[in-house]
Predict the structure.
Amino acid sequence: MEAEAAAKRARETGDAVEVAPEGAAAAGAGEQAGISAVIPGWFSEISPMWPGEAHSLKVEKVLFQGKSDYQNVMVFQSSTYGKVLVLDGVIQVTERDECAYQEMITHLPLCSIKDPKKVKVIDSTSIMAKDDQVLVIGGGDGGVLREVSKQFFPHLAVGFEDPRVSLHIGDGVAFLKNVPEGTYDAVIVDSSDPIGPAQELFEKPVFQSVARALRPGGVVCTQAESIWLHIHIIEDIVVNCRQVFKGSVNYAWTTVPTYPSGVIGFMLCSTEGPAVDFQHPVYNIEEDEHSTKSKVPLKFYNSEIHSAAFCLPSFAKRVIESKANGYDSVVCLSCLVQLENDFVHGNSQMS
């Protein structure tokens, strides 16, 4: 593919791929289509997933821009967050705050079970790896993003060369259907937002495939959107997970400044079998003698952050717990309507 070839050339020569920022007219067209754009000097993220708002970063230099068979890919140097990876107009990674997401989505599930050996990562960007035997399943643009990450995000691409990692570029959902029952201790679903092909990763059939692939007492952690923007999506995820996973179902969240609303959530579930208490990690990473010798110490995750991630604001707690406990959906929808009214009218109290 042209984008993959361009990324390879950039990696081999060390040169940046220069692309002139799009003009105001192009930016307007992008907004109408729900796709973000670079306007003179700035990148603004605009999407129907978060209508009426945008997050902007000042662009120092566009380093790479290309189109694969599936996505538009861009990397730029920002003034405040280092290099930024953008897919289809949506920020995926920045050098400054990627740790808050990457470390949480991996350590929340893996520190909740004893001695995980087989871990599966369904990763839309294909740049993530974890301990022991790891299988990374990417969708569509794995080849392009592998080359882009090697050039511009080498600290995230180190896993590609790890002998413990098997990288399969293809359809993660299709791969799941062929996984033998009870194969994995943990599954990590690092999906993009539920638009287009990624929508399937938020639906019940995928959760059923994940549950079948897990051993008894196995765990899954999936990206689960923002409580400020997508409580209705979170409701659906909770309902699906409660129907599929017979162990425990929990929602956690973390702060990521460059994600919409500045926060992102995770759904953590376990299959029937040995009990899993996600809120109290069984593995204390601070006590691991190897962690102190690591060449790349953790920047964000620790055991206190782990437990705190499950403490939710009252409005979100009511909605999620009512769905998790199987209460009538009217209760949840009334909370959602009240929350939206508060935002519209600027009220600070919820009834």
Notes: The longest strand covers residues 55-67. Residues 235 and 320 are 6 Å apart (CA to CA). The radius of gyration is 20 Å. The chain has two domains: 2-94, 98-345.
